[in-house]
Write a sequence for this structure.
């Protein structure tokens, strides 16, 4: 991952990542962000592109962060 890509992340994208790590649930993270689920999903898609990693894997118990997401 290039440093310039990280520098281009907005506060909202970084906040979304933080809340997804805390909640491990897209719906609850969306509510806390004040965004729709689809908007949060788009933010996650952009984060995945920037970090070149899926960041989260769906499980029956919610979203499981990848090692990259936890770093």
């Amino acid at each position: 991952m290039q440093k310039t890509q990280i520098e281009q992340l907005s506060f909202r994208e970084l906040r979304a990542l933080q809340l997804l790590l805390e909640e491990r649930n897209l719906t609850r993270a969306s509510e806390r962000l004040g965004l729709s689920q689809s908007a949060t999903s788009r933010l996650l898609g952009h984060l995945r592109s920037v970090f070149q990693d899926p960041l989260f894997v769906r499980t029956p118990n919610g979203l499981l962060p990848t090692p990259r997401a936890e770093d």
Observations:
- The mean pLDDT is 92.
- DSSP finds five helices and two strands in the chain.
- The longest strand covers residues 56-59.
